[in-house]
User: What shape does this take?
Amino acid sequence: MEQGFYKDSIVLLEGVIEEIVARLNVIRQYKKVHNDRDPIEYIFSRVKSEDSMKEKLKRKGFEVTLENALTKIYDAAGIRIICSYIDDVYSVVEMLKKYSDLKLIKEKDYIKNPKENGYRSYHLVFEVPLDIAGEIHPVFIEIQIRTIAMDFWSNLEHQMKYKHDIKNPELIVSELKQCADEIATTDIKMQAIRKMINNS
Assistant: This one.
């Protein structure tokens, strides 16, 4: 990890990730012991790389400073939660919102309102009161929640975005948009089938 840029604040960024992941894992264990279905398939986390953070600060028109990275850009610490079904996504969203000490800063539902390129996911930004030896440090974290199919699409779209020598990019963008729409339809159908199975 590039501690040169984040300096000792790396402890806060890694700490807030550990805090939220620990809460999610407690919820998962609680559901397990109560024979309730776990809505989460996987959890991924990362501290944004130094180069990515500097690039984003410049792109957003901010001076490249640690303070701006921690207070103006909300995704220095990030968690991605992968679920099987769309209703699981919304279930996890509601679980996170129930924590009274987490201050909701931003919320974007790109599932009901997808981006123009077809991107779908649910984004939440929280300010978390991280307790370190009795001293409270407010730390921002971005949480992205999506289905397995949405994540598969997003990974491919990410490769497309950062690969600069692609032939026929317009065609690929068009194909990706079509795939995003097909995946959304499949997600809805899979959820409906699961409900049919459970009801029977």
